[in-house]
Fold this sequence. Notes:
By secondary structure, the protein is mainly alpha-helical. It has 2 domains: 4-8 and 12-86, Helix Hairpins; 88-123, no CATH class. The chain is built from 6 helices and no strands. The radius of gyration is 16 Å and the shape is elongated.
Amino acid sequence: xxxxxxxxxxxxxxxxxxxxxxxxxxxxxxxxxxxxxxxxxxxxxxxxxxxxxxxxxxxxxxxxxxxxxxxxxxxxxxxxxxxxxxxxxxxxxxxxxxxxxxxxxxxxxxxxxxxxxxxxxxx
Length: 123
């Protein structure tokens, strides 16, 4: 079985190929694709998606070493997406400036959106 056709032991018919498509289909909304959410999703929807996906793709649920490796990659992406989409400032910066804005936010440890906006888009 090739890597792209590997089926995870999730109890559902999702495949690695479907997950890869979701991760690459809309690069400007990468984290939303990982979580299978709309950019308009509420905080409750983000949390519910995280809980469902993190349980579904938890590496400890996989017996096969290859499936465990793939599940670890997916679990890491899910966790990273949740950390951004569940945090109001990070989500606002991500929505406006993407990953570059998040890197700036981490590097400068800015605590307000107006500070990010003033630095990345000076008037």
